[in-house]
Amino acid sequence: MAEQINAYEPSLRKFYKEQIIPQLMKEFNYTSIMQCPKIEKIVLNQGLGEATQDKKIIEIAKKEMALITGQQPIETKSRKDIAGFKLRKDTPIGVKVTLRHERMYEFLERLIRISLPRIRDFNGVQGKLDGRGNYTLGITEQIIFPEINLDSVAKIQGMNITFVTTANTDAEAFALLKAFGIPFKQKNN
After folding, report:
1. 103 burial type by CB count under 10 A (0-12 exposed, 13-18 middle, 19+ buried)
2. CA distance linking residue 48 with residue 186, whole number of Å
3. Whole-prediction pTM value?
4. Is 123 helix (H, G, I), strand (E, B) or coil?
5. Phi, psi of 144 (to 5 degrees)
6. What is the pLDDT of residues 15-24, one digit of tens each?
């Protein structure tokens, strides 16, 4: 009985191993599987500037982020005093969560298959990467996630979702994310 019984593997990880790796190896002429880019982590970040006036906003955002990701978020704090924004050093101004491994794949699947299609008048996401193989997706409303109860939402908040990959170029990262099913807008040339 040395084998693992009921070893759980997210369906997107299995899809990555069986479909995406061979596709990328063929497309970019890799000689080893280790050259194939992969998603290292997904970081969800929510900046809450108005939290300097109302401390409850941070607690509400933490609860919503925990519902969306299934993981407890951490508070991001200001680094310095800015008098114009009535901001003091070490004041909570946002929340963030870093997802890796199984939770990352589960979140990515829910995002692609459930949440993004719920956006009104949705026709794809922008395909602009950062030059180092990472991609940030801006979401304007947290209510696209089915985990959020619409009746309990006090204020519509946006968030950034950053996909950190091991890709060396934007072309490799774009091919990887497109293969996972992220619906990029079609380029009209």
Report:
1. middle
2. 32
3. 0.77
4. coil
5. -70, -15
6. 888 888 888 8
Backbone angles phi, psi at 84, to 5 degrees: -60, -30
Who's near 33: CB < 8 A, 6+ residues apart?
21, 25
At 113, the amino acid letter reads R
Six token digits for residue 154: 């006090």
Provide the β-strand partners of residue 98.
Answer: 43
Between β-strands 135-139 and 39-47, what pairing exists: parallel, antiparallel or unpaired? Answer: unpaired
Indicate the burial class of 173 (C-beta count within 10 angstroms; 0-12, 13-18, 19 or more). buried
Residue 33 tokens, joined: 């599987």
CB count, 10 Å around CB of 44? 23
Question: What DSSP string runs through 29-70?
Answer: T-SSGGGS--EEEEEEEEE-GGGGT-THHHHHHHHHHHHHHS
Q: Give the ranges where the chain is alpha helix by DSSP (H).
A: 11-15, 21-28, 56-69, 101-110, 170-180
Q: Please report, as a single letter, which amino acid is at residue 17.
A: K
Tokens of 167: 């890709």
DSSP 94: E
Contact between residue 18 and residue 36 where contact means Cβ atoms under 8 Å apart: no
Span 108-129, pLDDT tens digits: 888 888 877 777 777 777 778 8
| Sheet containing 159-165: order of strands | 74-77, 92-99, 39-47, 159-165, 135-139
